[in-house]
Structures are given as structure tokens and as C-alpha cells.
């Protein structure tokens, strides 16, 4: 059992030191300023750069919403909603690729072999290209996706409570 206890968990992935890759963390920071922070059935967590550690954060949740930077060949700041089960089944509506070493799909496929997975929804924000130099700056185009992502996350949470 996880130390996190809420049935709905929102996890932001990314590195705040790698520019646009930190957009998932930026969404988590913004969510801490919304009414969601006061809901007892919702956890809002910075999951860092994830990898296999993400599996521990899935424990004990009924639903997990993962927010991450993605490369999906769409305009920067575009927001994509992807069902975790579609990723596991190999159905990808966009050429979704995480900017981390392991994609979210890779982690979920490993996870389904070793544990029971909750309902998973991925909110991916298009960043346009991989960041190769350290910076804390997120481009204005990518930041436009933050408000869209928050709106989608609120819809997910309130439809699940």
C-alpha cells in the first residue's frame, strides 16, 4: 500500500531543469492553486522524471492522471488525452513518445506484469522538440497548454468523484 491514500492521483512528470520537459511539473504547481488541492479524495504529486518509480505511485489509487511533456508531431502547447488502456493495447492515436528514457507506455507494460493497475489517463502536452541544454525556461507556446491541461484534469476528476 502506498503512503498516498487518495483514490484519484494526479502525477506530474518532468524535469524543471530541462525547459519544456518541466511542463508536467508546472501543471502540478498550478493545480496546487485550484480547488482540487482541498479535495480529500485527490492527491496532486510531483513525480519527477518518473521511470519505473512511477509504478510505486500507482499503488492504492482507483484512477491516476499522468501529466507529461510529449512529442506527438503537433503544434507546441497542444494537449492530448490518452487512455492508459489504449497505450497498453498498442492503440496510439498520435505518435506519442515521452521525452524520458522510458516512455509511459513502457512503464505501464512493465507494471501490468507485476501489479494491478488502476484506471490511467495520460494528459500529454506537446513540446515540439527534445530539450538538450539545461534551462528552467518553458516556452510561451508550451505554457499555453497548461491551462488546457488543467481544464481536462478537472473534468477527469469531477467526473470520477
Automatic annotation (TrEMBL):
Superkingdom of this protein's organism: Archaea
GO function terms (MF aspect): endopeptidase activity; enzyme activator activity
A biological process from GO: protein processing
Keywords of the record: Hydrolase, Protease
Cross-referenced InterPro entries: Pept_HybD-like_dom_sf, Peptidase_A31
UniProt feature coiled coil, ranges: none
UniProt-listed Enzyme Commission number(s): 3.4.24.-
SUPFAM superfamilies linked: HybD-like
Alphabetical list of Pfam families matching this protein: HycI (PF01750)
Protein name stated in the entry: Methanophenazine hydrogenase maturation protease
Amino acid at each position: 500500500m502506498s503512503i498516498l491514500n487518495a483514490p484519484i492521483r494526479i502525477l506530474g512528470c518532468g524535469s524543471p531543469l530541462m525547459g519544456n520537459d518541466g511542463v508536467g511539473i508546472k501543471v502540478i504547481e498550478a493545480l496546487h492553486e485550484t480547488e482540487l488541492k482541498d479535495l480529500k479524495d485527490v492527491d496532486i504529486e510531483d513525480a519527477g522524471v518518473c521511470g519505473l518509480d512511477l509504478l510505486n505511485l500507482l499503488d492504492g489509487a482507483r484512477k491516476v492522471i499522468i501529466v507529461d511533456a510529449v512529442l506527438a508531431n503537433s503544434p507546441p502547447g497542444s494537449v492530448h488525452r490518452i487512455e492508459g488502456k489504449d497505450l497498453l493495447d498498442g492503440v496510439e492515436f498520435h505518435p506519442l513518445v515521452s521525452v524520458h528514457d522510458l516512455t509511459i507506455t513502457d512503464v505501464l507494460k512493465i507494471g501490468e506484469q507485476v501489479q494491478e493497475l488502476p484506471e490511467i489517463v495520460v494528459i500529454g502536452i506537446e513540446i515540439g522538440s527534445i530539450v538538450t541544454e539545461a534551462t528552467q525556461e518553458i516556452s510561451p507556446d508550451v505554457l499555453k497548454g497548461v491551462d488546457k491541461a488543467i481544464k481536462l484534469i478537472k473534468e477527469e476528476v469531477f467526473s470520477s468523484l
